[in-house]
Protein 1
Amino acid sequence: MDLPKGFHQEVIEARENNLENVSDMSSRVSVQPLKPGGSNFQTHVLVEKSSSKIIYRPSTGGILFVLLFFGIGLGFVIYNLFDSTGQVASPSLINFFSLTFGLIFTFFGSYMMFYLFKPRVFDRHLGFYYKSYKFKPHHVNLVNQIRLNNIIAIQIIGETIRDDDGSYGSFELNLVLDDNTRRNVVDHGNLKSIINDAHILSDFLNIPIWHAKSQGDSTSIDWKD
């Protein structure tokens, strides 16, 4: 089986050996959402950095969302810690409930920003996929650092999420590994983008795409969406 340029010979040989049993393994891989929940908008976009590297970057909508969340929290903190002259307010004038609210929003906004910007990189030159701010070449058994020759399929799972305001669909793009485990790459509400990304990664890694019935209802993912 021919593979795209950029794979080392040992990766090619391992890939061909793994693909022989892929069809038998599909029935043993879970089709339940790996990360229940998810946003109702696109959080990441897939970008080709070079012929041997594809990465995910935060979408404009994702960046604006976390900045809004962070900005609201920071605004509450500043409003409660400083008076109208810009001086630090006395403890008696501080609304500690409002300040706590602002600190919580600021903390979670910072966490979401950290997670949103975390690199998600498929690198054929290194032979790894990693979801981390720093690639560690001498660590091969990390949860978020996976050899490409251990990835046997791209999995798409749809999930219907219901809340007090109604319901919406969120879709996972997961990596299926040769030990039947999975790793989540992205999880958001833009099905068309998820499908396009899956096809790009399928071609890039020369592996199949598996899709599962949407969870939470009786409908299947519409591949023509």
Protein 2
Amino acid sequence: MHSKGRILLIDDNPKNLQVLANLLNSNQYKVEVGVNGLDVFNWIDHEYFDLLLLDIMMPDINGFEVCKKIRSNKRFDNLPIIFISAKSDTLSMVEGFKLGGQDYITKPFNPSELLARVETHIALKKSKEELRSMNDTLEYKIKERTKELFTANQKLTELTETKDQFLKFISKEISSPLESIIKVIEVIKQSSESSKMAEMITLLDQSVLKLDRITKMASYITKIKTKYDSDQSTVFSILSTLDYILVNVSQELDKKNLEIDLDIDKNFRVNGNNELFKTSVLAILTVILQYIDNNQLIRIHSKLDNSSSNLIIESIINEETVSGTYIHEEVSLYTTYSQTIMALEGGSFSFSNENENKYEFIWTYKK
């Protein structure tokens, strides 16, 4: 027959022990008995119980003292104790609860009431044990998963560092010979008289320039990923920094006869990494300068309100003139690296191409 629980019954009156034991046994409980308070410790030190039914008035050590000693040992925190006693005064009941008892039943007791209370406290105990077991299992799984994620993150970090080192190496190794090739092509272009040769040189020139641009892009991305240091944050003016950036791309702007419409609020100041900001904006302009037609306008403006400030770089690029190129892929690649652009507090970066050939790069700074 399935047992509903294991109960330790302590009472110095043999008749009471017999009556209680018979009642509990007939209701599918397994019962062990003791005739004094010291018997409790002989049992619970070596055996498992779901409930302790404890008389109060006993020789040697009374029920209150037994309860107090049990509650001093964390091993038995989850063992429910029901006092069963002829003492029906309020002070005794309050004392029993203060010492850690879960319930108090007075003699003579009602069998149905006693069984109901026993069943309730054993059910509560088992529910607590199941919950504790579930928590332990969940905690173990979380620890194991954390270890797995930590290991995976370490491997990912190592791969990222290796990739960045490779990217930096390639950029450095390609840049120098590219500069030499570009200079040679410029000399050949000026001295070539054959239209066929001029066409071939133009094709070669375009390929080399594209390779040069990609090399610069790799360099920008590497800097964005490696230059971030929160300790380098400082308050700087967006307008002053943009003036510096535009000087650095002035030759490229002149080659295509591009006009810059710079409309930046002089009060647009942020707290962040100025060098990283320069690198990020230079990378954006590198994409635009590659694909924008000659004689076009690049608009750089700001939009400030009470909660945030926006820096918007927009241009019109006719995609029909750049068929076969990968502007979307290149922009997506860059924006992926720039989601944490400039690592400024509350900053975010987005790219928009909703209006046909109009491209917008928007950086938002939360105040």
Protein 3
Amino acid sequence: MMKIGMFTSGYQRNPLEDVFKDAKRFGYDYIELWGARPHAFAPDLKSGDINTIKKLIDKYEIPVIGYTPEHNAYPYNFMIGSEAQRQDAVNYLKLSMDMGKEMGADFTLMSAAHAGYLTTSEEIWKRLIQTMRELTDYAEKIQHKIVLEPLTPYESNVCTSANDLVTLFNYVNSPYLVGMCDIVPPFVQHESIMAYFDKLGEKMYHMHIVDSDGVSDTHILPGEGVLPLSEVMQELKEINYKGTATIELVTSYINEPRFYAKRAINNIRNLMK
């Protein structure tokens, strides 16, 4: 049975405890914790806030399976800027992995943000491979997985497809570096969602499930966009996908996160029937 998780960036104007309370109330299996202020920014966790996270995990008996530190350009993006800026982002992500492991998460989720308009493909791949090698070496050392997420072409010009993941895994081959599919990137660029499973095989480790308007990176409540989500859910059942799937409502519903977190999981349950 696929496990359904709650993503927490939409709760950033609410107390962190609301996240755990609602995940428990609405029947989510786990939390994918967004790592940014005010809730779970890695340096704050290191300064002592990690204890708050651990207490909430124990109190509500809801695990944090994935830790997703914010690092798409504000202020960390390992794909753009000077070598010193790249190194700063790498150090931040190493710290994030430490914190992910300490809270009991199975993985830290990363993505490769925009490399800038003047950067050539050759430069992009060189920098991506170098950075992921450094991060993967560290992941192996602490025995904590990295899940790499392709973004939409609206967000990035680096890693945006299943093929990009396949290419990267050929260069950086490690059981501690795996891939995932957020179903919006393939859908908006007319790529096959299910091809991720064929191409990545055992490295297809995690999913983000939401709906889409078909023309942007906007993440819409499941069942309320144009993506054929019911059919996606049936296909996942057909291939017996038993992994994790986070309903990644980001900030479109920030005004009322609990209403939409509840509706999202109810919609997904109905679509799974």
Protein 4
Amino acid sequence: MEIHQSAVILLLILSISSFTHGQPPAHIKPRYEKFLKQHYNPDMTVQKCDTVIRANRDFIHSETENGCKKINTFIKANSNDIKAVCGKAGKPYRNMVASTKPFSVVTCKLHSGDTHPNCKYRGVQDTRYIVLACEHGWPVHYDEGIYKPNGS
């Protein structure tokens, strides 16, 4: 079996192209990774709120005296479906982007706790349209304060 040099070059170009298009630009990557850590969990359940939030130092929050974040929503979806909201699966909404279809989410609300990491949360599962801030086609922020029950 003979491999032609042009076939090898084409394969190399396709490999590099798919790799570079699958990663956010270097200046966006930390914000995208933080977004994923805080809001992406396809296996999230209401019973996991305490465990998941306690395990992640990104949830230490300055909005409360005890460092406990008041509310956090986890999107239960494929990361590519979430990213698509920044493109064809989203539409402009205020200065952000809203999904054109609802997503399954688990919202964890602070119930009690002395200080982080001893925060106690109660979770609620829901289906809702999500609102994201995107940069260069990558989600970097989930807006907890905007609830769009009917996608309008």
